[in-house]
Design goal:
This protein has helices at residues 16-34, 41-48, 52-58, 62-85, 91-108, 110-113, 132-147, 156-176, 182-197. Helix 4 (62-85) runs antiparallel to helix 5 (91-108) and helix 8 (156-176) runs antiparallel to helix 9 (182-197). It has nine helices and no strands. With 200 residues, it is mainly α.
């Protein structure tokens, strides 16, 4: 095959989602290797095999790209939380399932979790902050548990913020250590969540 016959995988397709995925993969690698501040749009484009001008069809700037990637991470966690909650059963079982599911997502997307340390000054286009969507989902679960009399009564927003802090701390610890066992981490997180939420 002649060199002129070769095109990179991202250039072989005009599929916008394939190009976006290639950009995100390249950005993830560069952001984690060089640091967000030291990586440039031009470097991301080059690694993705996409023209710099094409990048700007997707994102106005590097921060907009980081926002989109963080929103994807949140969507993964929120979707899994809903899935585990909607399986039904006792609220204590649902909390345990949610905690296990969060660690499953974290294991499957371990490299993406590194982006969570790059959230300084990130505000989404709708005004939300990283973590708001997860907190909103926790509020919904908590409000349902209160209405059914199985969760301790408290300020919904405050309880959701505290629960989100517990989850975020557990995820950060898992990210920093290769020795964290999912089963052990799940038990620890779910025990704390149950003690905080479940009515005695």
């Amino acid at each position: 095959m002649k060199n002129s016959d070769y095109t990179s995988p991202s250039k072989r397709t005009r599929d916008p989602e394939a190009k976006r995925a290639a950009l995100h993969d390249a950005a993830l690698q560069l952001f984690t290797e060089k640091g967000y501040e030291n990586a440039s749009i031009a470097q991301v484009a080059k690694m993705a095999g996409i023209a710099v001008g094409t990048v700007y069809r997707f994102y106005d700037n590097k921060l907009a790209m980081l926002r989109a990637m963080l929103e994807e991470i949140e969507a993964l966690f929120v979707d899994r939380m809903r899935q585990d909650w909607n399986q039904g059963g006792a609220h204590s079982e649902r909390l345990g399932s949610i905690c296990e599911g969060l660690f499953v997502v974290a294991e499957q997307h371990r490299s993406l979790l590194r982006l969570l340390t790059m959230t300084t000054d990130v505000v989404y286009s709708d005004g939300a902050l990283p973590g708001d969507r997860i907190q909103n989902q926790i509020r919904s679960f908590y409000a349902e548990g209160i209405s059914e009399g199985t969760f301790v009564k408290g300020d919904v927003a405050m309880m959701a913020a505290m629960a989100h802090g517990l989850v975020e701390g557990a995820m950060m610890q898992a990210m920093r250590s290769d020795n964290v066992e999912r089963a052990e981490a799940t038990v620890q997180l779910s025990t704390v969540m149950k003690n905080a939420f479940l009515a005695r």
